[in-house]
Automatic annotation (TrEMBL):
UniProt keyword terms in alphabetical order: Cell membrane, Membrane, Oxidoreductase, Plasmid, Transmembrane, Transmembrane helix
Keyword rRNA-binding part of the UniProt annotation: no
Species annotation: Peptoclostridium acidaminophilum DSM 3953
Protein name per UniProt: NADH-quinone oxidoreductase subunit N
Signal peptide location: none
Domain NADH-Ubiquinone oxidoreductase (complex I) chain 5 N-terminal: 68-109
Enzyme class: oxidoreductase
Keyword Protease among UniProt keywords: no
GO molecular function terms noted in the UniProt entry: oxidoreductase activity
Alphabetical list of InterPro entries matching this protein: ComplexI-like_HydComp (IPR052175), ND/Mrp_TM (IPR001750), Proton_antipo_N (IPR001516)
């Protein structure tokens, strides 16, 4: 019975997606009701399952004595699953307001709901094989969301998304096969793998294949270009791509590989943290620099995501407790912050049909609540005390210094300055620009409707709360890290 229950957060969204896709429930009200019910029930079941006392593991298929497909819930999987399900709830209701201005709502909500099931599967994967299967499935169910508008630009973005994602997955498969030849046990365990000294070179090749393969969805430079081009999708899709569904799945998978397959000692022995860390440092700085060059608001936020994902990976490859605590905390904080920023961008677009920053001077006077929330989220992303972004970056800096890599702390500081350089001008133009374009008729002098504005305000309140009381999340993260061997 327990195994059946833990499969519910994975299976239930697919069942509701099938209901949405059936012709019997084709009306707009029915689609919204089913999608809303799906995300609410999913979160309720997830919380109940995590609170129950039973063996949270279920085997689906056993291929041989060493290789099987199974689900297993541990603390880090629970963190990722709760984060995803919670943000899906807010995004669902935001989407009901946003998507009524778009075509193809039934198709959107069907794949939107199915993606939640796949993301839960990634969170609950018990080994590398299971994770790989859900990782591949994530590409398939998110592709229709990326090409939702179905114009030439969308199809071009979709082709790029598929090419990068399947290419990355092929590397994961190759790395997994190479790893299996050395250590046939691919189950996740918070320890260090055993291997012979002569296998170090092969192990390094396997590690880098897995890092680069999963790094595609984590938008590691130079494998990042699919992400900005995917901004052609509706804003709710962009929010999920950047906050949790795709990019965080890539980061989560890398964390699994580093600490639950290889272990910190093995990564150090093969110098994996040095090679991967070089990619991460470039990602942090290039993402920030490229963000400054774009006038399109969503694209600027997209490049910002690339940089911020590098912060999380920085915490991973410092291979010490404080840095990993900072990385996991930033995984949560960035998800909350970035979803608010994209929600605000979507609200602005629905009200004004403006996408470029140069067109938004004075927007804060027309949409003060939206832009106040945008400003709070932006300040937190920069890392100004006492925001949640500051707390996670503080832990990352301490971890970098503790690992003897002061230059990584310098990279963090430089990136924070660049983050301020590409976000603060938006706030200044919105509230303090002398060019008050809202005095004309091009801007609608009202906020977005309640279904869109309420999630923005509520999530902004969560950002403020987690900044003032970081222990709400940090306590659980510390328990996750305490199980890991460094």
């Amino acid at each position: 019975m327990g195994g059946f229950l833990m499969a519910v957060p994975v299976v239930l969204p697919f069942a509701f997606a099938a209901l949405i896709g059936s012709k019997r429930y084709a009306c707009k009200g029915c689609v919204n009701t089913i999608a809303g019910t799906a995300v609410i029930l999913n979160l309720i079941f997830l919380v109940l399952i995590l609170g129950m006392d039973f063996q949270k593991s279920i085997e689906i298929v056993r291929l041989n004595e060493n290789l099987r497909i199974f689900l297993d819930i541990d603390r880090i999987g629970a963190l990722f699953a709760v984060l995803a399900s919670s943000l899906w709830l807010f995004t669902a209701f935001y989407s009901m307001g946003y998507m009524k201005h778009e075509e193809g709502q039934t198709r959107f909500f069907a794949f939107f709901t199915a993606t939640l099931g796949v993301t839960s599967g990634i969170a609950f994967s018990g080994n590398l094989m299971t994770l790989y299967l859900f990782y591949e499935l994530l590409t398939i169910v998110t592709y229709p969301l990326v090409i939702h508008t179905q114009n030439e630009e969308a199809f071009e973005s979709g082709r790029r998304y598929l090419a990068y994602s399947f290419g990355g997955a092929a590397l994961v498969l190759a790395g997994m096969a190479l790893l299996y030849s050395i250590s046939p046990n691919l189950d996740f365990a918070a320890g260090n793998m055993a291997y012979a000294p002569e296998d170090r070179a092969t192990l390094l090749y396997a590690f880098m294949m897995l890092f680069i393969g999963f790094g595609v969805k984590a938008a590691v430079v130079p494998l990042h270009s699919w992400l900005p081009s995917a901004m052609v999708a509706p804003t709710p899709v962009s929010s999920l791509l950047h906050a949790v569904a795709v990019v965080k799945s890539g980061v989560f998978s890398i964390i699994r590989v580093v600490f639950f397959i290889f272990g910190a000692d093995a990564v150090r022995d093969i110098n994996g943290q040095i090679y991967a860390g070089a990619f991460v440092a470039v990602t942090i700085l290039m993402g920030s620099l490229l963000a400054m060059t774009h006038d399109n608001l969503k694209k600027r936020l997209a490049y910002s995501t690339i940089s911020q994902l590098g912060y999380i990976l920085l915490g991973v490859f410092m291979l010490n407790e404080k840095a990993l605590e900072g990385g996991l905390l930033h995984l949560v904080n960035h998800a909350l912050i970035k979803i608010v920023l994209f929600f605000c961008a979507g609200a602005i677009y629905v009200n004004t049909h403006k996408k470029k920053l140069s067109e938004l001077k004075g927007i804060g006077k027309s949409m003060p609540v939206t832009m106040t929330c945008f400003s709070i989220a932006a300040v937190s992303l920069i890392g100004i005390p006492p925001t949640s972004g500051f707390v996670s970056k503080w832990y990352l800096a301490i971890g970098s210094i503790g690992a003897g890599r002061v230059w990584f702390a310098v990279v963090l500081l430089l990136s924070a300055v660049l983050t301020a350089a590409y976000l603060l001008p938006i706030i200044i133009a919105a509230f303090f620009s002398s060019d008050e374009c809202d005095s004309g008729s091009t801007l609608v002098k009202k906020e977005a409707e309640g279904k869109m504005l309420a999630p923005i305000v509520m999530l902004t309140a969560v950002i403020v709360l987690t900044g003032i009381f970081p222990s709400i999340v940090l306590g659980f993260i510390e328990r996750i890290v305490s199980d890991i061997s460094f």
